[in-house]
Amino acid sequence: MILGALLSSTAAIAQDRTAQARINYQAVLAGTKQIGQLSAQEQADIAEFDRRLRAQKPDDRTPDQRCIDAEIRREGGTVSTLARRVIEMKCREAGS
Predict the structure, then answer these.
(1) pTM of the model
(2) pLDDT of residue 10
(3) DSSP annotation string for 11-80
């Protein structure tokens, strides 16, 4: 009986956090909230919400674009213009 109540309570909390993550996600996209205004838990909830949204959508990028995105992620997410050109050439050749 106690276990059932605990599981029910846990499910309700998860639903509340998902609902709040959706609200925060939309607010960040709309620019009414900044990600830095959110707690670490809220940021993690938004990241998980975004991951689930993206998992539902098919990846319609070209193979070249997927390669470029992977290379930029491997470089830490930000690259110079020159590094981006090198990555683009590398990915273009890999796809040939």
Answers:
(1) 0.48
(2) 60
(3) HHHHHHHHHHHHHHHHHHHHTSS-GGGS-HHHHHHHHHHHHHHHHHS-----HHHHHHHHHHHHTTS---
